[in-house]
Design goal:
The protein contains 9 helices and 10 strands. By secondary structure, the protein is an alpha/beta fold. It has an 8-stranded mixed sheet with strand order 1-2-4-3-5-6-9-10, with helices on both faces. The chain has a two-stranded antiparallel ribbon with strand order 7-8. Strand 7 and strand 8 form a beta hairpin. Helix 3 packs across helix 4.
Length: about 280
């Protein structure tokens, strides 16, 4: 069972959401995609069905400025992509958490607890969000970054001079340009309100860090860094043996699961069953 919705943020941005499973009487997991990701990419619908089939509600969504528009599998909103920022994504994830926790926008009021999953860049966004959101009970990250402050001086100078940083979406060949709004956000806030490692230190809630052993996009030392900063009494870190950044899933279309993905899902499900269980929302 999947239902699709459009949620409008306080800033007037439209966010497409897909809800897998009934909403209200089940623990709710909200998934934040990473850079050049989107809610219908590759394994995400499969993941949604997996959690729904195991008694949970799973919500996947597109950040408003991720570049995906009405065509859910193509980057067509390049102007929005160019204006995206980490701060905007944190704000949007916080609004989605609040919508789930305190409104009946999805057809019912939520009676159970909320967990977050963030992949890659979405992992960093989820850590920052969970740090400030009391409505989030537990957090799992998949192949997460540990910092948004990794740009060298040469890259920053070129980006500032050109007015953009360009990236190629390999499957389609589309060139995606990120403008100065993102660079400004990094330079102003990466060491303060966007400091992922410090947010992990102050998370104060159950935290599962999962990472592919052979991830060559975000090497697994990012997971080790998060594990060092996070509270050892509340944190577990596990490597998925031999797995890459997307757990050995090929690019679209989705052709089926892999042993690495199944292990990732089993580890994550066990974590949320233990931490979210049948518990009810507080307040």
């Amino acid at each position: 069972m999947k239902t699709d919705h459009i949620f409008t943020t306080e800033a007037g941005n439209a966010i497409s959401l897909s809800v897998y499973g009934p909403f209200g009487d089940r623990p709710c997991i909200i998934y934040a995609h990473g850079f050049k990701g989107y809610k219908d990419w590759g394994y995400i619908p499969y993941v949604g069905e997996y959690f729904a089939n195991h008694g949970m509600t799973f919500i996947a969504f597109n950040f408003s400025h991720n570049g995906i528009g009405d065509d859910m599998h193509r980057f067509t909103e390049l102007d929005k992509f160019a204006k995206n920022t980490f701060s905007l994504e944190v704000e949007e994830l916080m609004e989605i958490v609040g919508m789930c926790a305190h409104t009946d926008f999805l057809g019912a009021f939520l009676k159970k607890k909320i967990g977050l999953i963030g992949h890659s860049r979405g992992g960093g966004i989820s850590i920052l969000t969970a740090r400030h959101e009391d409505d989030v009970t537990a957090l799992a990250t998949w192949s997460s970054v540990s910092s948004f402050d990794g740009l060298d001086k040469k890259t920053r100078a070129r980006w500032r001079k050109d007015g953009y940083e360009a990236f190629r979406h390999v499957p389609s060949g589309t060139i995606l340009k990120m403008g100065l709004d993102m660079l400004d956000d990094i330079e102003r806030h990466a060491k303060s309100r966007l400091n992922v490692s410090m947010a992990a230190t102050n998370l104060n809630k159950p935290f599962l860090i999962l990472h592919g052993e052979k991830d060559d996009v975000v090497p697994y030392y990012a997971a080790e860094t998060l594990n060092i900063y996070a509270d050892p009494a509340l944190t577990e870190m596990r490597l998925i043996p031999g797995a890459d950044h997307v757990y050995d899933i090929e690019e679209e279309p989705f052709k089926g699961t892999t042993p690495a993905l199944e292990r990732l899902l089993a580890e994550t499900l066990a974590f949320f069953e233990a931490e979210l269980g049948d518990g009810r929302m507080s307040g």
